[in-house]
Amino acid sequence: MQRTYTRGLYVVCIVAGMSIGHTLLALLEAGPRHGYDLKRTFDDHFGQDRPLHYGQVYSTMSRLLKNGLVEVDGIEAGGGPERKRYAITDAGVTDVDGWLRTPEKPEPYLQSTLYTKVVLALLTGRDANQLLDTQRAEHLRLMRQLTRRKSGGDLADQLICDHALFHLEADLRWLELAAARLDRLAKEIHP
Predict the structure, then answer these.
(1) Model's pTM, two decimal places?
(2) Which intervals hold domain Transcription regulator PadR N-terminal (predicted)?
(3) How far apart are alpha carbons 16 and 18 in whole angstroms?
């Protein structure tokens, strides 16, 4: 059951922009874990492109402990520093539940970097068409890479690749539209 929940959380975390604290809290709902177990589980499900650093795990756990969202369930002596096992508190479960139920604010991207670069290219006399062509080639390169990754991935990986591909497709449509309207935009910028 927890495996299914974690897979479902995979999509929520990636789509929602990834709250590491909430993600680690949710992973603790399966039972108490050491920091290195949390890192390994996080990396297995969410960190393929950006694994967590151990320091990030322990600083996050320290903050969650301070805020009463986790507690130390046990301390084990080892060859190195003591290993703490963390457990989620009732307040932590409530916090995760609230986070999962709260919709994320959609980002309208009204002032994107791509738009800024196109306008600045026009304002400075640079070739905005070349900028759009270069960006289009980069988007297509990444789309090919994600398509290959998707074809070899499990369902969770396929879903995250689809999410990224849909955003890249929208960017490509915008690049085409901007290229088609470039002369008109140049006239508006330089009346």
Answers:
(1) 0.67
(2) 24-93
(3) 6
